[in-house]
Specification:
The protein is built from five helices and four strands.
Length: 171
Amino acid sequence: MNLESLSTDECLARLDESRRELLTIAAGLPDAQFGLRPDAESWSPGMVLEHVAMVEGSVARVLRALRLATLAGKPVPPRNRDGRWHPDGRRIAPDGVTPGGNAHREEIMQSLADTRQSLLGQAAESSAMLENSMVMAHPFFGDLNGLGWLRMAAAHELNHIDQLRRIMATA
């Protein structure tokens, strides 16, 4: 799904829709499957959900940093933008958003709720400047403004909804 042309409002609507879908999938996961890794190289459904929450928390912090930098008229300090890839072409999650796999279901679900609220709060506070904010490098997508980061968050969640469906289909 191409989200590059979505407005802020369309992006927020997409995030709302995908979160409902993600939570429906999560609710249907039996406890035994929640923490079960399909193989040594793959994440469990719980790890996927933990990762989604970690990324959303990170995007909320990025939106805040971009807003503050834009208000101050100063660029954001450069970040590592060298994403790593698996041999099969899948992206490797950067260290700061790699799930540990030790969190309990309730903790992960609460984290999903908390980070979503943080993301929505930062998007609301930044709304007037999302399209015209300073930029920050994403490890895979290069320099993104605030709206670019919000679009990335929407695409990210959709990607992991597909991943959860694949995991469930093979269980």
